[in-house]
From TrEMBL:
Residues 51-328 form the YjeF C-terminal domain. Catalyzes the dehydration of the S-form of NAD(P)HX at the expense of ADP, which is converted to AMP. Together with NAD(P)HX epimerase, which catalyzes the epimerization of the S- and R-forms, the enzyme allows the repair of both epimers of NAD(P)HX, a damaged form of NAD(P)H that is a result of enzymatic or heat-dependent hydration. It comes from Mariniblastus fucicola. This is ADP-dependent (S)-NAD(P)H-hydrate dehydratase. It comes from the Bacteria. Keywords: ATP-binding, Lyase, NAD, NADP, Nucleotide-binding. The keyword Transferase does not apply. One of its GO terms (biological process) is nicotinamide nucleotide metabolic process. GO terms for molecular function: ADP-dependent NAD(P)H-hydrate dehydratase activity; ATP binding; NAD(P)HX epimerase activity. Homotetramer. It catalyses: (6S)-NADHX + ADP = AMP + phosphate + NADH + H(+); (6S)-NADPHX + ADP = AMP + phosphate + NADPH + H(+). NCBIfam families: yjeF_cterm.
Length: 339
């Protein structure tokens, strides 16, 4: 058993999530049949999950002779009139997470605004209708063909035609679906089950409730539903919130980095950029999601140390990604959960 796995099991035992017998079975047995219980509160029900818990993958070394094409062509689709910041934060965080090339496809109304956020982000102005996407133009189609991974949703708005999302779902590349694109996915009942490449959904609790068409009163109930949804649809769910859950229906990771200061507009857009970037660099989609939520939370912790939880904003998290990645690498090949 690796050290980070032992430390995780020990924390579960200390917090009361598993018994002593379960801890012994995990350490000395295969641990596959142990059910980990998450204690919510005295008034909450206890929800059991049979998915196995995982640790955090290590970063791959970057070859000395590498060039920008080796680290992924990332395409982020989103933004709308009044919401240029969301897609810009996602694009900037993708750059800070190691992507070689990052392009933001946005309505032409806001293209100059988005381009002004960071000169390293390329933009594709798309025809729009009152500041929102109206169709998939030819120049965007070309970008979709060459991208290694596509993310859609940050700041997109809900006025987008369902066929726009459908065109993204039909891509052969991995895709990350966030924010308003999740609401559109729920409203149009577009299926993701038959996609041949990885599909990652990054909903906050409200978005997941809409996606599942269910109101949840307990976090544990929502997490159980997320595990089932991921298994049924063949996707990866990143259920955001305190101790963000990442699951593909058979594996689970609950994050232990981050703080309440990250409850600020744009924080989720930063996470989308990190997830998308790591997938574009060739990481397995589930591993990318796990690593992304851990590093994103770690960046939030660095930002809170510098600015305080009350005053930190999402751009501070972007600025802190460098420190978070450096601390991740510093631990070495066997990355521990928590620092």
């Amino acid at each position: 058993m690796k050290r980070h796995q032992f430390e995780q099991h020990a924390r579960h035992f200390r917090s009361g999530r598993i018994s002593l017998n379960q801890l012994i079975d995990l350490v000395f047995g295969d641990g596959k049949e142990v059910v980990v219980l998450e204690t919510l509160s005295e008034d909450d029900i206890v929800v059991a999950s049979v998915a196995s818990e995982v640790g955090i993958p290590a970063l791959k070394p970057r070859p000395d002779d590498a060039h920008k094409g080796d680290f992924g062509r990332v395409l982020l689709v989103g933004g709308s009139r009044g919401m240029a910041g969301a897609i810009s934060l996602a694009a900037m965080s993708a750059l800070r997470s190691g992507s070689g090339l990052v392009t933001a496809a946005v309505p032409e109304t806001i293209a100059e605004v988005v381009a002004g956020f960071d000169p390293c982000v390329m933009t594709v102005p798309c025809r729009d209708s009152d500041g929102h996407f109206s169709s998939v133009p030819e120049d965007l189609k070309q970008q979709l063909k060459v991208a290694d991974v596509v993310a859609i949703g940050p700041g997109m708005g809900r006025e987008v035609d369902r066929y726009f999302l459908q065109a993204i779902l039909e891509l052969s590349q991995p895709i990350v679906i966030d924010a308003d694109a999740i609401h559109l996915l729920a409203e149009t009942h577009s299926m993701i089950k038959n996609r041949k490449s990885a599909t990652v959904l990054t909903p906050h609790p409200g978005e997941f409730s809409n996606l599942a068409n269910t109101e949840f009163s307990k976090r544990g109930e929502m997490e159980a539903a997320a595990v089932k949804f991921a298994a049924d649809q063949g996707c990866i769910i990143v259920l955001k919130g305190h101790r963000t859950l990442v699951t593909d229906g058979s594996r689970e990771y609950r994050n232990d980095t981050g703080n309440a200061g990250m409850a600020t507009g744009g924080s989720g857009d930063v996470l989308t950029g990190v997830v998308t970037s790591l997938i574009g660099q060739g990481y397995d989609a589930f591993d990318a999601a796990v690593m992304a939520v851990h590093i994103h939370g770690r960046a939030g912790d660095f930002a809170a140390e510098k600015y305080g939880q009350a005053s930190m904003v999402a751009s501070n998290i972007v600025d802190s990604l460098a420190a978070a990645f450096k601390s991740h690498v510093a631990v070495g090949a066997e990355v521990r959960i928590g620092f």
